[in-house]
Amino acid sequence: MTKLWCELAWLGDERAEQGVLIEVDRDRIASVTTGAGPGDAERLSGLTLPGLANVHSHAFQRALRGRTQVGTGSFWTWREQMYELAASLNPDTMFAIARACFEEMALAGVTCVGEFHYVHGPGDMEQAVIAAARDVGIRMTLLDACYLHGGIDSFRDADAHAWAERAGGLSDAPDLRIGAAIHSVRAVDPDSMRVVAEWAGERPLHAHVSEQPRENEECLERHGRTPTQLLAEAGALDGNFTAIHATHLTPEDVDLLAGATVCLCPTTERDLADGIGPARRLRDAGARLAVGSDSQAMIDIFEEARAIELDERLATGTRGLHPAHELLSAATAEGHAALGWPDAGRIEAGALADLVNVSLDSVRLRGTEPDFALESLVFAASAPDVRRVMVGGRWIT
Amino acid sequence: MTKLWCELAWLGDERAEQGVLIEVDRDRIASVTTGAGPGDAERLSGLTLPGLANVHSHAFQRALRGRTQVGTGSFWTWREQMYELAASLNPDTMFAIARACFEEMALAGVTCVGEFHYVHGPGDMEQAVIAAARDVGIRMTLLDACYLHGGIDSFRDADAHAWAERAGGLSDAPDLRIGAAIHSVRAVDPDSMRVVAEWAGERPLHAHVSEQPRENEECLERHGRTPTQLLAEAGALDGNFTAIHATHLTPEDVDLLAGATVCLCPTTERDLADGIGPARRLRDAGARLAVGSDSQAMIDIFEEARAIELDERLATGTRGLHPAHELLSAATAEGHAALGWPDAGRIEAGALADLVNVSLDSVRLRGTEPDFALESLVFAASAPDVRRVMVGGRWIT
Q1: Quick one: closest CA in A to B269, which residue?
Q2: Left (φ > 0), alpha (ψ -120 to 50) or beta: where does B134 sit?
Q3: What is the CATH number of the domain that holds B270?
Q4: Of B338, B359, B381, at which residue does a domain stop?
């Protein structure tokens, strides 16, 4: 049994608690006591959070950082550079890039990553990304993506059944969940979507949804429906579904996503000139929110979380649409649930012992008052403020 | 004579140079040699930049960080919290807050700050902020703001002549320039604007311009002119003028600002729900750009610089409106010029020896290729990547 005493810890409420004793038994939290003294426990100064969930990642895109910022273009010209990189990979280079990327995530407080995986070859790319996360020590949900049309050779399966065969060959492990992904309405036809959704069953099912206006236009032209409507008709939109981006939605789309999770990736959405999604309207309709570093333009979950609010401020002229504790919930419990780990991302007895200890001593956070600790953290912390990270009872940084 | 050998240095061009020898004689750069070997010079690994200019700062607002992120509201409700803080200050607390704020700036690579100063009492607040910057070791341009209408007691002078009397009592020093500021069209009437603009002469003259739509509406209603038109008619808009924000402009406003500098403060503009300004159109019209941390919601000049581009991507759907070297120029040479230091913010013989050495070893920047060093820096660096900072030939961090 490990005893940790947190000067300040966030237990899911509107304010952080001062003086929290956490007992850890192997990989689980055994007990949480508030208003406690440190006694003989190990002291964690600063603010301690549950593990952060990075719900949408394409690890290999870390290798594009900086290099895609030359010249003018759009999402679509960026995509050509991404294809070129993807076509050059093999399992060894995939492992090396993914390992560096997951290490950056771990240092930023990410304890679980949703790897939306569509580079299926050459060789066993699935095992390469699984091994990279395991080597760093973070949990992974591998969202094996069905990709049938467009893209490059290594993305595509022959059909949805060939996809299901590969996905079915992957197994859960204590540090690994297998989930399904429909790459997008561009890459998967409606009949194949249905196959993927049925295969997914109770597993997480993710899909890129309405990231760019052109995607909507083409979908409406071909199918007479929005991407969200198409996914709804394919039976994809249940409580295990996560829509990635969901930037350009109709009011009806918002209602259809009410029971699902929407994963925003604000640093990527600004990098790729996607636009600003209706996060508040989605929340109001009943959708859960999560965040992801997606293209790895940067890896800073605090920046992703605050940008949900700050980008909506730019779009609406209003401050305070999303309180800090809701943004933190998106980055922790809601994110973990969207990845199939409902027992992670929360500091409570029985939960997985995933913890992130953040220093409040940096120039960014000094002067933080306990009553406003969540607001200071969400709106001013930076990834380097993460001091220590525990996954399943083990300190990995 | 100090000799520094930079593994990589930015000399103002589209690419960083490898192997740059910089000789420093007292507070000036004596010579710059490219393609040089290290010889017996002190080695600076990573990327070396000229000093960063933080052109728009209200240092005391650092004390609001986190605390203003509770509840819903707007720019106008935020302003009430800011008034309350300002009314509580005295020279000792002003010094303490400003010193901590300027230290955070120094650690982020800021070698010169434009302090837009309107808290004129009680006591000698001007000397408090001047002493704080001097204590940290960064240069300052004190933009003493004329504030006649609205606000709180300590902001206001009796009239523009009383303002000129106080401003006239302040003197330049080797580490200090005195400039003028028209707080805004809300706070200064047209006749008084003219007095301030005449007083300013060749000194820097700054003004908040069109930060919020309501400011424009009220100005049009009262004067039948936009804030920019009003400032133009008062004779303010010459080459020494810097418009702060300039978020909500008419096409005619953009043309009027062609010969001036526009200082964007993107992290504040998103925090205060101001909106996204027309940075590219301003550049195309001939305006110079600069950046500022303004309300100190965060202090990260790299984030300010990239947000000029990234916010416009959100607004336009286009990538690559502002190349990395132009964004860096805004954060260095153009910013320093707007603060009355045309001989700073550039690595060249005769310039002030202000240097910022950035590590490329962090998880954020590792893998940076020399050919894309500027793009990696601008789009992925964070303030903690700044390793050492030199002001006037002296390492201050």
Answers
A1: A314
A2: alpha
A3: 3.20.20.140
A4: B338
Q: Please give the pLDDT value at position B122.
A: 96
Helix (H) or strand (E) holding A22: strand A17-25
Residues of chain A with pLDDT under 50: none
Question: Which of B104, B136, B314, B327 is the best residue to mutate to test the A interface, defined by the most A CB atoms within 10 Å of its own CB?
Answer: B314
A131 and A116 within one domain: yes
Contact criterion met (CB < 8 Å) for B314 and A276:
yes
Look at chain B and report how many structural domains it folds into. 2
User: Which domain, by its residues, includes A391?
Assistant: 2-50+345-395
Query: What pLDDT was estimated at residue A73?
Result: 92
Considering only CB atoms, which chain A residues are within 8 Å of B378? 69
Binary contact (A319, B383; C-beta < 8 A):
no
Query: What is the pLDDT at residue B199?
Result: 98
DSSP secondary structure letters along B233-265: HTT--STTEEEEE--S--HHHHHHTTTSEEEE-
pLDDT in tens, B32-60: 999 999 999 999 999 999 999 999 999 99
Kindly list the catalytic residues of A: 245, 294
Residues of A in contact with B213 (CB under 8 A): 317
Count CB pairs under 8 A between chains A and B.
179
**Interface probe with B: pick from A358, A360, A364, most Cβ of B within 10 Å:** A364
> How high is the pLDDT of residue B94?
98
Last residue of a domain, one of A301, A322, A338: A338
Which among A299, A318, A366 has the least Cβ separation from residue B74?
A318
Annotated catalytic sites of B, by residue?
Answer: 245, 294
From B317, B362, B383, residue closest to A74, measured CB to CB? B317
Type of residue numbered A369: E
In degrees, rounded to 5, the angle at the alpha carbon of residue B239 between the alpha carbons of residues B238 and B245 is 85
- Please give the distance of CA B322 from its chain centroid, rounded to a whole number: 18
Which whole-number Å values give the CA distances from A262 to A59, A124, A141, B222, B339, in the listed order? 20, 30, 16, 46, 45
Give B-chain residues touching A70 at CB under 8 angstroms: 320, 323-324, 372, 375
Alpha-carbon distance of B238 to B7, in angstroms, equals: 40
pLDDT of residue B244: 98
Amino acid at B16: A
Q: Among partner residues A273, A298, A376, which is closest to B66 by beta-carbon distance?
A: A376
pLDDT of residue B383: 98
Instruction: Give the model confidence (pLDDT) of B376-397 as tens digits.
Output: 999 999 999 999 999 999 999 9
pLDDT score, position A331: 98
Q: Are B27 and B79 found together in one domain?
A: no
Collect all residues of chain A within an 8 Å Cβ-Cβ radius of residue B67.
Answer: 369, 372, 375
Q: Given this model, what pLDDT does residue B218 score?
A: 97
Residue B60 shares a structural domain with residue B147: yes
CATH number at residue B34: 2.30.40.10
Residues above pLDDT 70, as percent of chain B: 100
Pair A116, A183 in one domain: yes
Q: Name the pairing type of β-strands B2-9 and B241-245.
A: unpaired
Chain B residue with Cα closest to A373: B66
